[in-house]
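Hi support team,

I submitted a single chain yesterday and got back a structure, but I'm not sure I'm reading the token output correctly. Could someone confirm the output below corresponds to the sequence I sent? I've pasted both exactly as they appear in my results page.

Thanks,
R.
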Amino acid sequence: MGQLRLLIQVAFRNLFASRINLLIGAIIFFGTLLVVVGGGLVDSVDTAMSRSIIGSIAGHLQVYSDHSKDELGLFGQMGGEPDLAAVDDFSVIKPLLEKHPNVKTVVPMGTSGAMVTSGNTVDLLLARLRELYRQRVDHGETPELREQLDSLKGHVRHIVTLLESDLANKDTLLSDGALEPADEEAIAKARSDAFWAGFEQDPFSALEFLENRIAPLLPDGTMLYLRYAGTDLESFQKSFDRMELVDGQPVPPGKRGMLLSKFFYEEFLKLKTARRLDLIKRERDINKKRIAEDPEMQRWVKENTQQLREFALQLDPLKTKLAIERLQNHLGTKEPNLEKLLASFFATTDDNFDARYATFYKDLAPLLELYRLRLGDSLTITAFTRTGYVQSVNVRIYGTYQFKGLEESQLAGGLNLMDLMTFRDLYGYLTPDRKAEIAEIQKKSGVTAVARENAEDALFGSSAAPLVADATPGLLNDKEGMDGMGHLRREDLAERVYNQQELEKGMVLSAAVILKDPSKLKETMAELQQSAKDANLPLRVVSWQQAAGIIGQFVMMAKMVLAIAVLIIFVVALVIINNAMMMATLQRVREIGTMRAIGAQRSLVLNMVLVETLVLGLVFGAAGALLGSGLIAMWGHAGIPAGNPTLYFFFSGPRLHPTLSLGILAAAFVIVLVVSALSTLYPAFLAARVSPLRAMQTDE
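Hi R., thanks for writing in. Yes, this is the structure output for that exact sequence:
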């Protein structure tokens, strides 16, 4: 023990004795700092992202058919949605999963996507006009209804006037840069006094003309990719506690309906000018950026000052007059041109942005339709079913939702929720209602089912039963045909309430499993897989990380990159430390020889060099670990801001609050000690072999 104390004292005496020791210490310091800071950040991102994935859609485990061609990817994959085989009956697998003592809930689901059109300003106006005229047919005309009709008609006529004024700049209207003569004639007709004078005589025919010939000429309609998850909405909201309703109302239990993601609703269905203002405000308030210094914010300001057509199209003559008055009052000018006023108003700077943002929502937003789709409206979704045919479904939008902490995340916010019955329709699954509807149609139309082996005889031979029935006059009449089926009408199906048994007894693409004790995830996953095997159910049970696809592998890849970086740094450090120790040993040949001459054993010399290097590693390693711990603690208190919406998902919120585990600190010290010891072995061995006589005869 006394010898060890002596060696430690010598080691501390020589700690800063040479520049070589300082070089070695600096390498160990920065290597340890990298391990502590990098490990702490990667572990914190892993924890945060697991909260995002588990709390948003995946649950702790996902179960899907083992016959699937692709791996489950809840957030999509390269090339589109994964090719999954359907689980035909969720009611069979649910009790099997819930029987496990660690399973809390099981939520049915399936994900897919479809292209939908958001419509343009004329589409929305004409839809409202058609609705009002139907109200007049059903309930008669009132003064209030007449006022609304005249206002909307004036707005449409104003838009047609703007459209005609744009004919001189045709490339802004159509991508091919030219209008067909028929389109020019249609615009001229829609601008004529005769067309509007005769509008009331046959309003529905006039609306059809405007919908088919004028609305398609407006360039502001967009096609959107709508990604959706079909699920038991009530069970989903109870199981995923990060989900919260933002606007509107929940879909009533058992009814068909949809909740749009608040992010999707704001990003793709909101007036673009208003959305850009919101983005600028977010960057200023949350990320503390300045318009004068940020190129992206400057681009948003420029687009707001130049892209005014969508804004102007929303204003009828009366609203245009009000907008001009309010803009003149705010800007302190008498400029009568609306577009010039808007361009000046939206030329925001850091000094005037807050005032103009407040003015926009107080004075201008009430004059506009901020969203292309209003809550309570129906959205037509057209998708390809699993067998390749096209299926369209009208689904009512009840409200918007978001996951707490992931409000600005595109990954979490890109998924919309719909009821499971509607999802099955779009997927191509025949629900009992659809089967009954088809059977009723077959019965009324006289269609006869023919077996495959008898098809040739039925078509070309003599058959007792006719294959084709004679047409029955009036059979397909809307009133006698569809009303005759009563409860099978589409409108009634959309309003029908489905019980829990009907919701669960049908196909799903996967099921989310929420655990009582997440720390037992691996054991539970293996036990559920074995239970499915014992029950002869072809199922795959995967963790949230596997179910998330490439997103779930992000942290694993980050850990691999960090490990490779640390390995490279310490391999280089090992070589440098080894060479430095060799140089230090050669410089101390006389000292070592003198020690040997007065009786020091080789073991003492060997231990002396090893202890010096270990003390050097521990001192500078501790300094690096201390600085790294301080940085993690500082960031953990203040938080690291998510610089863009993608990082919101990985940080599980607008800021990452990293923490440091004891395991990271222990790993850092182990690595330092191992590298220090390995790099010193050969120099220490050479020092122990120094001959006293030779060392004392050396000039150096």
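A quick pointer for reading it: Residues 19-58 form the longest helix (40 residues). Let us know if anything else looks off.

Best,
Support desk
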